[in-house]
Structure formats: structure tokens, C-alpha cells
Known about the structure:
Layout (H helix, E strand, L loop, with lengths): L1 E6 L4 E6 L4 H10 L6 E5 L5 H13 L2 E6 L2 E5 L7 E2 L1 H4 L7 H10 L1 E4 L13 H9 L3 E5 L2 E5 L7 E3 L5 H11 L5 E5 L5 H12 L3 E3 L5 E5 L7 E4 L4 H14 L1 E6 L3 H13 L3 E5 L2 E6 L7 E3 L11 H9 L2 E8 L10 H5 L4 E5 L2 E7 L6 E3 L3 H13 L3 E5 L2 H4 L5 H6 L5 E5 L2 H8 L1
Parallel strand pairs: 2-15, 3-14, 6-7, 10-11, 18-19, 22-23
Antiparallel strand pairs: 1-23, 1-24, 3-5, 4-5, 7-9, 8-9, 11-13, 12-13, 15-17, 16-17, 19-21, 20-21
Helix pairs in contact: 1-2, 1-4, 1-7, 4-6, 5-6, 8-9, 8-10, 8-12, 10-12
The chain binds ligand EPZ.
Ligand EPZ binds next to α1, α5, α6 and α12.
Amino acid sequence: xxxxxxxGGNTLHGEVEISGAKNAAVAIIPAxxxxxxxxxxxxxxxxxxxxxxxxxxxxxxxxxxYLNKNTVEIDTRNITExxxxxxxxxxxxxxxxxxxxxxxRFGEAHVSPPGGCNFGVRPxxxxxxxxxxxxxxxxxxxxxxxxxxxxxxxxxxxLDVVSVGATVNIMLAAVRAKGLTILENAAKEPHxxxxxxxxxxxxxxxxxxxxxxxxxxxVKALHGxxxxxxxxxxxxxxxxxAVAATGGSVLIRxxxxxxxxxxxxxxxxxxxxxxxxxxxxxxxxxHDIQRTNIKTMPxxxxxxxxxxxxxxxxxxxxxxxxxxxxxIWENRFRYVDEFKRMGAAIQVDGKIxxxxxxxxxxxxxxxxxxxxxxxxxxxxxxxASGTTEISCxxxxxxxxxxxxxxxxxxxADIQIVNQSDDEAAQDVG
Length: 429
Ligand code: EPZ
């Protein structure tokens, strides 16, 4: 097992190139199943969630071939068994997108319940509601979610909650259903729009993605195509937060400015200078960090996937009290006890965290507990005085391509080292 070792205190300067969006890639890759053809997907991030999805496709009989570091050719013509077993599905949340993709292609799907970050209860009732509205029968037994349907028909579906996953899965199941599906109260995240654009490039007829009403007119078949994934809004936001925490000035390259608006606005409130330059954004911190309040909401609100990273920055405010209201997840504050060991002053009560701006943090041994919490611990370590060691980095490497290389490229003192057997054993426990 490996860990990150960070010697904090360096300010960050230079440029960072943003990779393809994880949450778009993990929806688009399963979607390729819908075309009994060959798809070429560009700007695919090199992260473990993507590698696992490619392994699942290979196990299903698809052919996955890297044309270069970030371009992949996927041939799904030979897939016959619409099954994803526990051993594969448990590694990530997005494995459940094969439910919608298999339903759309085969009229049946047998997928073991997904894994993913632990924020408390993560129900999938809205996914099932959508599948059943399209005519599928959904059961759960023998460790599988089973969805079957002789013929799917378009339906008017109203989501009870705004759900990225349910929006993705219902779109995937609906693209080949007979007739029109109207999905109300749909998620509007950039990765929803990216998936719709990919499916339309394959011959689907989807309109309204990016609004809360998505219309899918079923088609008989989809064909292959070539598509490039959008840049990762959350990866970019993570590097913006890192500069805010450490000080310095960094050009974040290959972003879509509109996607960054909610994060930019919040950092400006905190006294960080942001300059948009076309498909880049320069982040500069010259003054003390100001306290602020954050409420996480579905897009275009402030993204919950940036919540832990911003908490790390708010700990470093010089005085003042900030309040974070986690509007999406039951418990996304599992990182707080780790931050407290660095000198942070945070009180959590349910979905509310009250953060005192203590102005500085000290390095400590930390254990990542999920993807974005792990990224937040890296940010805290970069800003802290002294050394921070972060274990369980497999969580972080699920969603950040070459994190250490990109940070070292802007002056961070961070490296990956092997853990001793004892340290590794403790992490497993
Ligand atoms: C996606 O998770 C992202 N994951 C998460 O990002 C992100 O935090 C989340 O959307 C919110 O933006 C991927 O895209 C792979 P939801 P998802 O369905 O789809 C409730 C990261 O760091 N809900 O939008 O699982 C649910 O409990 C990851 O990249 C139901 O009640 O989230 C939550 O309160 C972590 N019933 C809310 O909706 C359902 O059937 C939003 O969840 C589905 C969801």
C-alpha cells in the first residue's frame, strides 16, 4: 500500500492541465453498451474508476483498446450477458449505470448493488421508479438488482429528488424505449449534458439536458461514434481550492468557465482573486482568507463534491466563523476528525458544520475516508506547517489523474511512498 507524504508551507505557482470529467466518463463508458458498434472516446481521465469500468466491459466480452493515453476505442458488439457481479460492482457507484444501459440494449439487466463513497444512506429508489415507469420489472435477490422488460415504452416520470444517478440511468434506459419519455425534476450537472451529447452523437434523440425537463424520443438503434469528454469541474475546483489554501498564483488550464461559476463566486467571497481567460482560469491569493457560508445544492448551486475541499480552506481563514450546510448527503463530514488533529476547530451537528478560522494548521498522519475528503486532506497538508502523511490514497486515486505530478508541477512538496507492512495492516483494519 502507498501513502502521500506532504511537507507543507509551499505556495503554488505555474500551470495545471485539467483532465476529463470523472462523473461524465463513468456515465459515458457504460452508455457505449447501447450501440452494438465501435465508439472512440477522447479526453478519458486515467483514474481507477475508469479502469474498473473498462475491466467490467472486458469481462462482458467487449473490446477496449487505448489509442493513446486518454483516447479509448470501445467495441461492444460481442457483449451477450447483461450481468455485472458483486466483485466488480462493489468498487464504485457508477457500476449501476449498467442497469440502464443493459435495459436499453437487451431488455434485461442483472447488476450487483454499487459501491461508492460512504455518505450514509444512498438509496436508488428513483432509479427503480424510472425503470418501472418505462415498463420494467425490478427485483432484488441473490445479491443482484434484476430489471427485465419485454418492450419499454416512453413515460412521463417526475423525480421525487434531484438525482444525478437516476437522471443518467433513466436516460440510458429510455433512449431505445418506444415513444417519448419526459423526465421532470432532472439533474442539470455538466456531466448530464455531456452524456446527452454523447448519446445524441450515437443517434439518440434527447433534448433539454441541462434543464430540469429532459425529453428522450426512443430510437430503434444507436450507432458508434467519436466523442470528447468535458473537462472536470470538480478537479479544477480542487486545484483552485489548493491555491486558495497555500497562497500563490496558478493558471488552471482546459476548463469550461461557465461550469466553474458557482465555485468561482464562493472563492471570490473568500477574498481569492479569479481571472477567467477563455478556457483557463487564473487563481491568485494575495490576502488573508475571509470566512463565508456554504450550502451545497444540485447544479448550478454549490457542488457537494467541493464541500470538503472548501472546509479545508475555511479552516485557514484568519478569524471569523464559517458555516457549511450539506444540502445533499446525510453525512459528508467524516473528514472533520482528521482535520481536528491538524488543529482545526470544527463542530458538526447533522448536516451543519461550524468552522472557526484558526488561520493555520499543523501536519499530522491522516487516513482518507472517501474521494473528496482525501483531496481535502491533501489541500490541508499542502497548507499546514510540517509533514502530513495520508494513507488509504486509493480513495483519492479513484477520481484524480496524476494528482501528485500535477501538484509537484506547481511547486508542492508531495510524494508517494510505500507504507511499511505495519502501517498497511493498520489501514486495512
Ligand atoms: C453523483 O452521485 C456523483 N457521483 C457524486 O459525486 C455527487 O456527490 C452526487 O451525484 C451529487 O452531485 C457520480 O456521478 C458517479 P444523487 P449520485 O443521486 O448519483 C438522493 C464524487 O465525489 N437519492 O444525485 O449517487 C441521495 O440520497 C461523487 O465524484 C434518493 O433519495 O447522487 C442524495 O441525497 C461522490 N434516491 C440526493 O438524492 C435515489 O434513487 C442526490 O443523490 C437517488 C438519489
